[in-house]
Amino acid sequence: MKKQIITALAILTLGSTVAFAGPNHDGGFGGGHGRHHRAGMFGKKMAEKLNLTDAQKQQIKDIKKSSFEQNKAFFTQSRETMKAFRDAKKEGDTAKADSLKPTLDSQRAQMKQLREQEKQQVLSVLTADQRAQLDQMKAEWKAKRESKQQ
C-alpha cells in the first residue's frame, strides 16, 4: 500500500511538472497552463503585484520560451515515459512499470533542475525591491497553506 501511494505521488508530481513545462498559450510567462490554467511563477496577477515593467515582462517571456524550446525533446520524452508507465500500471504489467521507475525518477530530477535554472534566470530580471516583495509574498502563501493544513 505504501509503495502504491509513493508511486501515485511520483506520477502526480511528474505529470504536473510536464503539464506546466511549456510556455503559456496566451503568451504569458508562467510556463504552460496545463489543464488547471495555472500561470506558474509569474502570471499576469503576479506581474501586476510586482509592478513589472514591459521590458521585464518581455525578458521573462523570452526566458520561458527559450527554456521550453531548448528542452522540448526532453519534455516529449518525459511525457512518453509517463504514458508508458501509466499504461503498464493500467494493464497490470508491474515488471514494465518497475523497469520504467528509475527513468521516471531521473526525469523528475532533471525537471526539477530545469525549473530551478529557469527560476534563477527569471529572478535575475527582478530588482532587489521586487525580489524582496516576492519573498514576502511567498512567506505569506506558505503561512496561509500551513494554516489550512491545521
Which labels suit this protein?
150 residues; 6 helices; mainly alpha; extended
**SS content category:** mainly alpha
The radius of gyration computed from the alpha-carbon positions, rounded to a whole number of angstroms, is 18 Å
Write down the overall mean pLDDT.
79
**How large is the count of helical segments?**
6
Characterize the largest beta sheet: strand count, sense, and whether it forms a barrel: none
Q: What is the domain tally?
A: 1
Q: Assign a percent range to the helix content.
A: over 70%
Descriptive account of the structure:
The chain has one domain (2-149). Residues 4-10 and 12-39 have low confidence and may be disordered. It is built from six helices and no strands. Helices cover 75% and strands 0% of the residues. The chain is mostly helical and 150 residues long. The two termini are 25 Å apart. Helix 3 (54-70) runs antiparallel to helix 5.
